[in-house]
Amino acid sequence: MGMWVGMGRKARRSYGFDEIALVPGSLTINPDDVDTSCEIGGIKFAIPIMASSMDGVVDVNFAISLGKIGGVAVLHLEGVSTRYEDPAEAVERIVNADVTEVTKVIQDVYSKPIKKDLVSRRIDELKKAKVPAVVSCNPQVAGEFGPIAREAGCDIFIVQSTVITVRHESSKYKSLDLTRFCKDMKIPVLLGNCVDYQVALELMETGCQGIFVGIGPGTACTSRGVLGIGVPQITATCDAAAARDFYYKRTGKYFSIITDGGMATGGDICKAFAAGADAVMLGNAFARSKEAPGKGYHWGMAMPHPNLPRGTRIRVGTSGSLQEILFGPAQTDDGTQNLMGALATSMGNLGAHNIKEMQLVRMIIAPSIQTEGKVYQTAQRVGMRK
Amino acid sequence: MGMWVGMGRKARRSYGFDEIALVPGSLTINPDDVDTSCEIGGIKFAIPIMASSMDGVVDVNFAISLGKIGGVAVLHLEGVSTRYEDPAEAVERIVNADVTEVTKVIQDVYSKPIKKDLVSRRIDELKKAKVPAVVSCNPQVAGEFGPIAREAGCDIFIVQSTVITVRHESSKYKSLDLTRFCKDMKIPVLLGNCVDYQVALELMETGCQGIFVGIGPGTACTSRGVLGIGVPQITATCDAAAARDFYYKRTGKYFSIITDGGMATGGDICKAFAAGADAVMLGNAFARSKEAPGKGYHWGMAMPHPNLPRGTRIRVGTSGSLQEILFGPAQTDDGTQNLMGALATSMGNLGAHNIKEMQLVRMIIAPSIQTEGKVYQTAQRVGMRK
Amino acid sequence: MGMWVGMGRKARRSYGFDEIALVPGSLTINPDDVDTSCEIGGIKFAIPIMASSMDGVVDVNFAISLGKIGGVAVLHLEGVSTRYEDPAEAVERIVNADVTEVTKVIQDVYSKPIKKDLVSRRIDELKKAKVPAVVSCNPQVAGEFGPIAREAGCDIFIVQSTVITVRHESSKYKSLDLTRFCKDMKIPVLLGNCVDYQVALELMETGCQGIFVGIGPGTACTSRGVLGIGVPQITATCDAAAARDFYYKRTGKYFSIITDGGMATGGDICKAFAAGADAVMLGNAFARSKEAPGKGYHWGMAMPHPNLPRGTRIRVGTSGSLQEILFGPAQTDDGTQNLMGALATSMGNLGAHNIKEMQLVRMIIAPSIQTEGKVYQTAQRVGMRK
Amino acid sequence: MGMWVGMGRKARRSYGFDEIALVPGSLTINPDDVDTSCEIGGIKFAIPIMASSMDGVVDVNFAISLGKIGGVAVLHLEGVSTRYEDPAEAVERIVNADVTEVTKVIQDVYSKPIKKDLVSRRIDELKKAKVPAVVSCNPQVAGEFGPIAREAGCDIFIVQSTVITVRHESSKYKSLDLTRFCKDMKIPVLLGNCVDYQVALELMETGCQGIFVGIGPGTACTSRGVLGIGVPQITATCDAAAARDFYYKRTGKYFSIITDGGMATGGDICKAFAAGADAVMLGNAFARSKEAPGKGYHWGMAMPHPNLPRGTRIRVGTSGSLQEILFGPAQTDDGTQNLMGALATSMGNLGAHNIKEMQLVRMIIAPSIQTEGKVYQTAQRVGMRK
Questions:
Q1: Candidates 3.10.20.30, 1.20.1250.20, 3.40.50.300, 3.20.20.70; correct CATH number of A15-383?
Q2: Which of A105, A221, C153, C308 is the most buried (most CB within 10 A)?
């Protein structure tokens, strides 16, 4: 399990969405009969597709809209929602920024301090609308915001940074003790991101309920270019799922593996489940909805970094309502609409009654086809970088 | 026979047309001396290249033209021919639709109900012209249309959906019993599509006479993008051919393996035969003929799906008559004309006296060359998506 | 030595120029001290780079110019030189043809019959200029033209078709007996093209002096697209060279392996020698010379085929004199000029004193770099197809 | 460790930056706590990134600027600085040359003879500014310039050619005895370039203090296209590092491995260290600085070759000050600014306390992602070739 890349150095071959395809077997099922729901942190969701905690994608209104139809959007506690009374204004500044200045504008927008009372208020707004309140922040501030969020009625709390580990060294600040944090929070905690079997096992030991998988795969993320770090999502998801299955066998406790980032089409989502995901997290797809605050733009949350901005403001355009994007009818044929319909149809063709069976379908390594959809999409990505 | 794509998960490497080339051996033959005919369902065809049951490619007139020169075109019983007295009018609406509205127009055109008397009439028109009547439909309606077609004098009946299996579960409708259907039909039945050795064997057990191989490879099909499903055609054809050969050895009964989709040039067709095909099925190539109803456009039959349209209206242009496309003289050098001449020349160069010997020629894995033909073609596909 | 491409079917991985790079070792040599000469058919040539028998590249004047500086150009006996008193006029018609009509114009130009007296006259012109007379034709007419050429004083005779084999079947004409032909000709005979170890051995048994390696690799050749046939040149050359070395060990007779086609730059030429070639044959590079009759255009000799034209008229432009292209000074840095300087420099860096040592340098499989040169070149190929 | 590329010929698969990614493990570190310094030739540098000895990148002023902030720029003793009293004027001629004439202009600029007193004077200027004086030249002139440089107070002397070996044959001139040269120089000597374990060991035996790794990988270098020679940098660096580690184990003497060329982004730099480099050498990145003499252009030092120019004048544009390029704040997100910040952040995410630990992080083989950054960059390279 590894090839020589140089004398004395082996590296393992890893695989991404484009290199994999799914293979039907001896059974097919009417798509109307498959069960596409999932359970995360003890809560059952009709839609196993979460919306990324990015300010161009999720604000309180968006989270309410998605929650009402059975999905879940994650609100970032370090985003504009907790820095501005009126976050829409801040988002507008970013969206309207000239391409040459966008990095600076974003850095400026995010230099405004976070207001703790806005943390409580946003969660309260979600709870009042009777949708699950799921929020996230970085490890450095989790100790501070976690208790506030819990008090405000938060249902699931997510601690998320580019790379998370149980062991973190710093001479400047005290590292967050993840095990203690999970215990103290009492509500379900999810951790991310990781891409490794061993790290996944260590994170599971902290007492969290699930982990996010994905370092450097998203379109709005340039970790691999800037830092050289990144693992393709099929391999990363398989590895994390193997850790989950091993831990389950040993302890009887089942974690959620949430594949986060890099999925462009319904086909990619289907492949993530086939690789072992319990749920997926998307940015691009939801950024295209009419309900998204970014009006067809989104940007990574590592982008505001004052010294080393990573990520890009991507223009994806607006293509339909949340309802259309998730349940159709699809107006286009490029795999970016009716994602739930695509998932159900794929599961039916592959003979998977539910997500757990979908995790077992056969994969094949297939040279990526340059379908028009992909070409068009790539063209869009490059051309629309505004 | 498999590589690790993640911990505990292996996947097999599969191959498509572009990665394979054919290797001449110690014998060459004058192309005029090779036999390119094939036999499907007990009928001998001079041309082993079938025309896909797509409404932009095949109508009754086209099927008659192709039948007259020794080939066979498949008429779709759920297409415009059985929904409209004058199908040309419906085709025209699709062809003239603006690119932004084409999906909706197609959905609308196909919302008109099928008329059973038109099923009989179309078959009758074919029989009167003294060409083989070969028709197709989906499993859901095969039980209804099969007997009508047989009564009308149909020669070969095809049951075809994106993915076909012997076992199909549905709580909404009764699944078609393929074994009983084949037995009841009495005339030869072909089934498709499949991409797997085991599934191919199970389909052979139903009593059918041949199977179509290909899920997700065609240019007008976006199954892989939308559903994540698809197997490259060289591997799929080899596997199905291995099932055929195994079944033949065990039972003495020989099935036809028909590679369906993904072939862009004469070279691709030659490779399909080398991989084990008894015949191939093309859409693109025939859509370019003057005789095609789509006037240079075609679209997949999964495209009308009201909720999850898959497939794209492709503009391929019109490049010559059926005669020119199949037998030349080629006006162009890009491998899309004189397909039969190309097949014969390739067989001569490879020392194959007939299709059965062509199935045994040596293949090599060769990095795909970006010939101008391919580049031009890709450019066309993307640019001409109108 | 082979990978499964499907059940029961293995195929060997083959390699082309772009996937290979050469690796320097412990010795370097001043390029002025390396010997780049070669010997073919008992004649020593200062330049181991032959010019392809294409009408856009070689006419009598070109062959004289190249011969005078130590190289050799092959005159095609079925080209315009033997069909027209004034071949320049025929070439001009092709060069000036509109892109939409070029295939037809070429077919028409080559429909004019060959005049036997012109065969003798062209060879005579070469001999009078005191350069080697090297000519070629297809196997079908070799029996007729061979003796005429020999009588006229031809030095080396080449029998060349897309694919050549010792065994050829035809019900229409008597196949050429290569062994008898080589014996009767008395002058050195070269045969081609082949890509296989076994076929190379069989061709060596005929009594010929060398073979051409290459099926489907050239830029003006679309064999792989039209016929599916083609083997990348590194693998083909290695295999033919292995046959040469085996035959030499067994019989003491040394053949010439001439890699023909697919080389775009000095780097590709160096790689061909490293793979085992004794000489190389180029079309593109020489077509760019001021001395070439095609004025910056060339086209394959399979292109005139009345029914199945293969090949493309390529515009390469005119970039310098023969002297500049072979010996510099290079006006450009893209590897298409000063080919002999590049070869000598490469041999020096790799520590090869002569071509035979160059055949032993270390190769590495390296992912192809999209150097600007390559990108530019591809752009040219596609864009300049006029 | 090798694949068959043809009968009897094996070649090893090698890897470049784009095919590799780095994988985080169980530990992360605050980037502020990692040590990014390196030691070369006994001198400690805060910045392990050297500037290439190219005339568009380094002149005396640039070397002073970079030296002042802890880095090191190499001044080429055969460049314009030692040929012209006012080198800026010569650089200006090259920068302003039309694209069609640039090769000729460069050849002309470099035809002016080197003045020995300028060699001393340039080193003197560096020493007076109290920055390390690091200079380079080709082996042919090292015997002449080495002593002059040492007398002038040079700190580190570099002997560098496209390919360097201990054994060099020439009938025209006496080859440089590297062992004697290193011994006579007394000051630290670095040698390059090489790409091979065995050659690296032989170079270490000469008594030098470090070697440069990289043949043919840079953007301004076309060695692979022109000469067919080149080894991707990950494999080349791993091999050289393995030689260093072996030699250290045997002798206790530690060499510096400096990866030279081919790195486009911070991510590539991180990967070079992960492959085993002690330092890296860049051209492109520094050419973009306001302090670079080339005003946004650079060109390879093999380009002036009168007969076989290799390399290209590349326009990279000017994107920021040296300070911004190395330490940020980054104005862009494409990985070309704040390189030291990227290195520290990557090391923190990967849990590497210092460069020596960074040499041990896990690598994975990952299909290259076409991030927008890369696409944009490639577009720039091709489009901006002026």
A1: 3.20.20.70
A2: A221
